User: Fold this.
Amino acid sequence: MGCNLRCLWCSNPELIDGTAQILYHGERCVRCGACAALSRGTIRAGSGGCEIDRKRCVNLAECAAACSYEAYETIGRSVSSPDLAQALLGDKVFFDRSGGGVTFSGGEPALQAEFVAETAALLRSAGTRVALDTAGAVVWEALETAAAKADIILYDLKTFDEKPHLACTGISNERILENAERLAGGGRKLCVRLILAPGYNDGGDLTKRLRFVKSLGRAVVQTDILPLHRLGAGKYRALGIPDPLEGVPECPADAAAAAAGEAERMGLKVTIGG
Ligand code: SF4
Assistant:
């Protein structure tokens, strides 16, 4: 899918690059050495599992395929809109029973706006509801296209102030705030999602974000407080990349409850966790 943000707390690091990624799950490895034998010296299978020199390894997919224990996992593949829609519609009975549907998420789905729009149109024409989960950090035309067939837009606001936004995501949030206002002004239904990472975007920044959400008016049908979790930590290890928040604790439940209370006092319909 790819992403143009680099959030410190990203729980889907395998989707940032936009190309297929190979994860190594050490807990499944029996240290047989089959992958290392094919690796031309770039994989060492020791008693603690495999050490993979990903910078030098030119045939990791081939080595991974040699594993009989599913210690390697490939995430990401190319797929056409019709094929994806057909596969998703295989679960239509569950969507219909639960009142659910399909959410385009990522990464940033609006980076593939035409693809999302085409797939969403196929799903909608088959009677399945569609949501778009976006950080909104794309040109307006791309966002408009990606959101064209969405019944609801899940809109992530990481911080309100620009300085922490730059520090936490690597980019300015000017366009994100502008695009949120344009979507709301156009009458699109929004569920605004506020990650809560104590020490990064709580306190005054949360208050500013909530006030901004309130300013979007009736377009916002729900506000989700998303407490920082560390469920993606294992993926960093499996990808062999540094975890930017290694050792940082999860958001305490009472901090999330306090944030939800603040949102409620502003008259927002709020959930914790979405
Ligand atoms: S082939 Fe699989 S089980 Fe064998 S050493 Fe490599 S990762 Fe471990």
About this structure: The longest strand covers residues 220-227. The pocket of iron/sulfur cluster is lined by residues 29-35, 45, 50, 66-67, 69, 71 (CB under 6 Å). DSSP finds eleven helices and ten strands in the chain. Residues 21-75 form a domain with the Alpha-Beta Plaits fold (CATH 3.30.70.20).
